[in-house]
Design brief:
The protein has one domain. The relative contact order is 0.19. Helices cover about 70% and strands about 0% of the residues. Helix 1 runs antiparallel to helix 2. The chain contains two helices and no strands. This is Death on curing protein, Doc toxin. It comes from hydrothermal vent metagenome.
Length: about 50
């Protein structure tokens, strides 16, 4: 992880929550959802930094 923080807009935050909710509704383990969302964060850091 970098020293920078990614700050999501309210809409982007809402979309991330919708993705998490969808994954939970698919009966995926919480650990998978967390790893998936962390991978999105890592991708964004690579893209933006």
């Amino acid at each position: 992880m970098s020293d920078y923080n990614i700050v999501f807009s309210p809409r982007a935050h809402q979309r991330m929550m919708e993705i998490a909710d969808y994954l939970y509704q698919q009966n995926l383990p919480g650990s998978f959802v967390l790893k998936y969302l962390n991978s999105i964060e890592a991708w964004l850091e690579t893209l933006l930094c």
